[in-house]
Amino acid sequence: MKKVFFIAVLLGLSFFMFASTKNETFINAAFITGSPLMLSGGTVSRLDPDNFGLAVKITANRALVPAGAFDGFGAKVQIDADKKTARILYNGKTAVFTAGKKSFRLNGREYPLDASPEAVSGTLLIPLRAVSEKLFIRPVSYCSGVIEVGNKKTDAAYLREVKEKIGQATRPQSISDLKAIISGIEINAYDTTFIKAKNSAQFSAASGEDYSRTNIQVDGIDEADTVKTDGKYIYIAANRTVYIVSASNPKTKIVSKITLEDDLNVREIYADGNRLAVIGQKFSDGGEYHIMNGANAKALIYPYYNKNTVFVSVYNIESPEKPIKIREFEVEGTLFESRRNGDTLYITANRYIYEADGGTDDIMPKYRDGENAALKPVGISHIICPPNPQCAAYATVAALSLSDPEKPAGVESILGAAGRLYMSASSLYLTRTEFEGNEQKTVITKIALNGTDIGYSASCFIPGSMENQFWMDEKDGYLRAAASDSVNGSNLYILDERLNTAGKISGIAKGEKIYSVRFVGDRGYIVTFRSVDPLFAIDLSDPKNPQIKGELKIPGFSNYLHPVGENLLLGIGQDAKDMYVKDKNGRDVVVGTYTGGIKLSLFDVSDMGKPVEKDTMVLGDTGSYTDALYNHKALMAGPENGIVGFEASVSGGLKDSAAFDGAVLIKIKNGSLKETGRIPASREENYGGGDEPFTRRLLYIGDTLYYLRDGMLRAFDYNTLKEKSRLVLS
């Protein structure tokens, strides 16, 4: 009976009542074993506001909760981290708990404990029963795995509410718990072998000088790219090399190169102030042997599932001629995305689980923090598991201080690979797509951020799927999230800080797929497409009552929407043309559409009820392409002069008699679009050394425009487009 009860406690919910010291009014509150959250009076909060990762733990058949949770009872909690004690003062009584001691003192009298308090993260985990029965004078009861303090509340609706609000993710209690969870997921059958690695000034904000920055989504939240500039130097990532180029007019020159080891590959960089962060992939040795489970013989099996790692190397670039490495960090997995807020760098990596990962060290992702540090598991206390995971992978989030190399990194791993990422100043949101029968849903996991202190905050799901980061946005604590469902109609959800639904619009444009989304202040814009391009303008000023205010239908579609001033949107997409066949009477009948050239649309949204396409421009015909369709960082936006630029391959067509390959500049002024110039691709691109960058970017510093393409950096006069200089990167 005890064994059954203990299992029920581990898997079930634990509920308690908390009291006011004055009016003795009790409000139902709830825990879930392993959850770092509590539900009290319908409000979700963290168990311990100062320790994001702490969760309810079961030890010796007793629920242990962080001492900070008792503040919610109206008690006063005092922690002595050095002595590893906690004093809880309530209603004239004082209880003192000591880590590792199987008794506690209440007003000077000693009482036994079934489970000892545990010291963790500068606080104590304390047995709930002892505090409830002795200090709060409220009985503890159990029903169907539910722990309650005070009045029972066991109706199914209440239990369902708790699970939905704080039970979307929990921390496993042990390695065996984690293995049991993972064993229920279909995982890869290949074995893998990991090859181990061989082996203070402030990070300032950008100045007010006139130079282009990476096109980002959220003000103040920087995004990595393969090319960065600080107005004096241009930093370029290329395979195993980072070039630091002086941008002094009229000539450019390489002042230094950072060359990495053969097994490293740079994917992206950050450069600002006097710090350069280099992020990339470290590959384990290729051509190794893999073992199929159940077979004794070794066999070389394709594809080669190696355990690669994501690396971060931070350099001091106070003297760009001599960059000095000051920090190394590494985490298992494949680089997903990264962000930077001030001097804190956040990276995410997806790490897949294989059947051979059976040991304690292998079943959890590993990381190392420091040049000479060894790889170590993330640890049970930093892993979050959803109730029914469908993907055998971890999404690991790491937070590193760029100004203080000695400060330990914060690490959190969520079971399930990340699919999309959005980050605000205080939260990072990861999504993954799952299925319920034939229906797709997007699971959203919220990670709270406070510098390098990070921890699970909330989870939810919405119907449909997401395509990119712009389908999410946070304002005033609300997350606005769009998801595409071409069959049942797409959805827009407004979620509060605990990811509860505050408002929503369902069934948008049934039979059509969402192509682009952009949120600007209290407005949202959604573009769907089937044969025409409807632009929906949505009023989000009331989070509980979002409303579609206007709709505009035009040919073609926009993959990306870019705000231009207060009431203008630039859409970058593709033109669409009707396909015809002759019916039996010889009349043309539309049977479908096909894509044409690159289409630029300028939308006037000053009147949300009547959005207007002020101007449009089509470059080329079918087969034309620009990276800006799918990568917002490929768009150079110059707010000072109203010019946008991007690299494009334009096919010949009715409007362009000859094909063109190179950079295109567009000026936006007085509600119109005007092409101001093109820079043809150089016929002398560098393809030789293997470390030349294949990135294609436009950027500007002052009155100089730079065009990087395939190892050639060319400088032009911004106004005349006359070439000033060229530099081969080798």
Number of helices: 4
CATH superfamily of the domain at 2-167: Copper amine oxidase-like, N-terminal domain
Outline type? globular
Spatial sequence of strands, sheet with the most strands: 20-21-22-23-26-27
Q: Tell me the radius of gyration.
A: 29 Å
| Major beta-sheet overview | 6 strands, antiparallel
Distance between the termini: 73 Å
* Total count of strands: 55
Protein structure class? mainly beta
Low-confidence spans: pLDDT under 50, at least 5 residues?
A: 1-27, 189-208, 286-304
In which range does the helix fraction lie?
A: under 10%
Under the CATH scheme, the architecture of the domain at 2-167 is 2-Layer Sandwich
The CATH topology of the domain at 2-167 corresponds to: Copper Amine Oxidase, Chain A, domain 1
Beta-strand percent range = over 45%
Instruction: Tell me, rounded to a whole number, the average pLDDT.
Output: 83
CATH class of the domain at 2-167: Alpha Beta
Notable traits:
single chain; 730 residues; mainly beta; six-stranded antiparallel β-sheet; five-stranded antiparallel β-sheet; 4 helices
Summarize the structure.
Helices cover 5% and strands 50% of the residues.
Task: Describe what you observe in this structure.
- With 730 residues, the protein is mainly β.
- The protein has a domain at 2-167: Copper amine oxidase-like, N-terminal domain (Copper Amine Oxidase, Chain A, domain 1, 2-Layer Sandwich), CATH 3.30.457.10.
- Helices cover 5% and strands 50% of the residues.
- It has four helices and 55 strands.
- The strands form 13 sheets. Strands 20-21-22-23-26-27 form a six-stranded antiparallel sheet, with no helix packed on it. A five-stranded antiparallel sheet has the order 7-8-9-10-11, covered by helices on one side. A five-stranded mixed sheet has the order 24-25-29-30-28, with no helix packed on it.
- A hairpin with a 2-residue loop joins β20 (264-272) and β21 (275-282).
- The radius of gyration is 29 Å and the shape is globular.
- Residues 1-27, 189-208 and 286-304 have low confidence and may be disordered.
